[in-house]
Amino acid sequence: MQWETVIGLEIHAQLATKSKIFSGASTAYGAEPNTQACAVDLGFPGVLPVLNKEAVRMAVKFGMAIEAEIADYSVFARKNYFYPDLPKGYQISQMDHPIVGIGHMDIQVDGKTKRVGVTRAHLEEDAGKSLHEDFHGLTGIDLNRAGTPLLEIVSEPDMRSAKDAVAYMRKIHELVQYLDICDGNMQEGSFRCDANVSVRRVGQEEYGTRTELKNINSFKFVEKAINIEVERQIDIIEAGGKITQETRLYDADKNETRSMRSKEEANDYRYFPDPDLLPVFISKELRAEVKAELPELPQRKRERFIADYKLDAETATNLSSSKDLANYFEDLVKESGCDAKICSNWVTSDLLGALNKQGLEISQSPVAYKRMAGLLKRIADNTISGKIAKRVFEAMWTSDDNADTIIEAQGLKQITDSGAIEAIIDKIIADNPGQVEQYLSGKDKVFGFFVGQTMQASKGKANPGEVNKILQAKLKR
C-alpha cells in the first residue's frame, strides 16, 4: 500500500527587539536566571502590558516579504493554560485577528520549485524555560525568556516529505535574517518549529489524524523527527491500529518520538480578547515606512547574481544564502576588481571551507573582505600563483598580516623571469634523459612530470604559464 505524508510547520521566530513585547525588560541572551523578568512579564497584580511597536513593524515587514495580507485591524488574545514556566497562567497571543494573513513561500526541492502556503503569522509572547539538568531530580524555572516577542509562522499542510519541510524551514530561516527581524540562532532557541505530521493513502482526499512534534531546533532533527514519525504512523495503521491526536517529543539520542500529552484544540485554551490591550490598527503610513525598509530579498539577489556576475545557479544560491555572505562577496568583487567567478571560487571554497572547519559564521571571519581583496590582486598581477595564494591565505587566517606583508616576509613572489625559469628547465631536461625520450616517443603524460619537477625546483614560485610555454618549446617533437 502506498502512503502520502502531509506536513505543516509552525515556526517560532524570536524577534530581534531589545526589549520584550509588553514590557521594557531586556531580551539579551545569556543573563543569570530570573534577572530579566520584570513585574509585567510575571503578571503581578496591578501591572499593565504595553505593546512594543518595533515588534509590530517586524511582523509587518515579514508579511510584506512573503506577499501576505496585512491586517488593518489586529487583536491580542489570552491563551489560557497552566504550565510551570508560564507565570501568568495565560499567554498573550493572537487568535481570530492575526497581524499577518495568507501569504506564500516558494521552495526548491530536487530541482523543482514548489509553493507552500502560509496561513498566518501572529505575534505572541514566549514562555519561560524549564531546566531539568543539575537540579537533583527537581526542575528549575528560568523566566528570563518570558515575554520575549515571537512571530509564529503557520504554514498550510502543503509539504509532502521531510525534505520539503527542511527546505521550507531553511527558506524562512534565511528570510528572517535577511529582514533583520530574527538572529536565527537555533542553538539559543531563537528559531524553532513544531511539525504537524499525518499520513494518508495515496489518492485519499481527507487528511489523516495528525500528531505535533514539539520544539525542534535544528534542520537535521526536523528531517529525522518527521521521517521516524511517518514510519511510526504507517506501522500502526498497517497493523490495524489508529493514530491518536497528540503532542510528541523527538528524542535525538534514541531517534524516536514519544508521547508528551494529548493534543489540545483551540477551544481548550479558552481564547478571549485581552482586556488590557487595545486593538492594533496598521496605518497606511506605517505600511509605507516598512515597505521602504525592505531589503533586496534572497530570490531577487540570486537572480541578480546570475544576471550581473554570470554565476551558475548553485553558486548564486550559496552566496545569497545569508545577507552577510552576499555582502562579503559583492564587497570583495568591488574592492579587488577581479572577475566575479574568481571571487566566488575563493569565497565558496577556501573561505567557507576554513569557516566551516572552525564552526564560524561569515561575520566572524578572521580574513575581512579587504584583506582577501589584497590577496586576489596579487594573483591577478602575477605576483603569486594560485597555488602560492593558498599558502598566503592560510598565513592570513592565523595572523593579522596582509597578503603583501606575508609574500615579502616569506619570499613568495612568483618567478616570471623567463631566463631564470629556462635555466631551471634546462637542468631538469639534462638530468632526466629517459623521461625526455618517453615524451618524445608520444607519452604525453610525462609532460606533467617536467611541470612538477620545475615547480618543485622553484619552490612553487615559477609562473605556471611561463613553465608550460618554455617546456613546450624545449620538448618539441
Plain-language structure description:
Belongs to the GatB/GatE family. GatB subfamily. One of its GO terms (molecular function) is asparaginyl-tRNA synthase (glutamine-hydrolyzing) activity. It is an enzyme of class 6 (ligase). With 477 residues, this protein is an alpha+beta fold. It has three domains: 3-286, no CATH class; 296-410, no CATH class; 418-476, Arc Repressor Mutant, subunit A. Helix content is 40%, strand content 19%. It is built from 16 helices and 15 strands. It has helices spanning 39-42, 53-65, 162-178, 219-238, 284-293, 298-309, 313-319, 323-336, 340-358, 369-380, 386-397, 403-409, 418-431, 433-440, 446-457, 464-474; strands at residues 3-14, 73-74, 77-80, 90-93, 103-109, 112-125, 129-131, 140-142, 149-155, 191-201, 211-216, 246-251, 256-262, 272-273, 280-281. The strands form four sheets. Strands 5-6-9-1-10-11-12-13 form an eight-stranded mixed sheet. Strands 4-3-14 form a three-stranded antiparallel sheet, with no helix packed on it. Helix 3 (162-178) runs antiparallel to helix 4, helix 8 (323-336) crosses helix 10 (369-380) and helix 13 packs across helix 16 (464-474). It is elongated. The N and C termini lie far apart (68 Å). The relative contact order is 0.09. The model has no long low-confidence stretch (mean pLDDT 91).
Keywords, please?
3 domains, eight-stranded mixed sheet, 15 strands, alpha+beta, asparaginyl-tRNA synthase (glutamine-hydrolyzing) activity, three-stranded antiparallel sheet, ATP binding, Asn/Gln-tRNA_Trfase_suB/E_cat
